[in-house]
Specification:
Mean pLDDT: 83
CATH topology: Nucleotidyltransferase, domain 5
Largest sheet: 5 strands, mixed
Shape: globular
Distance between the termini: 30 Å
Radius of gyration: 18 Å
CATH class: Alpha Beta
Strand order of the largest sheet: 3-2-1-4-5
Order of helices and strands: HHEEEHEHHE
Structural class: alpha/beta
Number of domains: 1
CATH superfamily: Ribonuclease H-like superfamily/Ribonuclease H
CATH architecture: 2-Layer Sandwich
Number of strands: 5
Amino acid sequence: MVSRKRVARLMREAKLKACVTLVTRRIPGLKRFLKKGQNKILGMGPTTASIQIWVADVTYINLKGRWCYLVTIMDRHSQRILGWSLAYTRTTSLTVAALSHALRKGRGTKGGILHTDGGVEFTGAAFQSALGKAGMEHSVNRPGH
């Protein structure tokens, strides 16, 4: 373990400066738009099998001054990444590609739950259609959580 002062001193000596980047911005009316899903795993306990609950999210990666978007789908029980997709655009097709990759690995997804945030790439019609074809339910986290 190291103290905060030591890290600050070492960064000064190496002439390094911390940089905080604001990736998202506030959009009026967005919370009303995101309320259209419900959190189905809120009261659930721990999982007992690997096909019960999958979780997905988008990660922003700054690659040579340009933002990339990485969508990952993880099995909550085994904590293994089942599917992923990387692109320069944050669209529903990116999330559908990650879901199709995960569905190739996951067997017996009927009745499973995919839990995501309320982003438009997860609540879009193409993604919802792909979830319906796989027989999975969609659980959406509450805004701000």
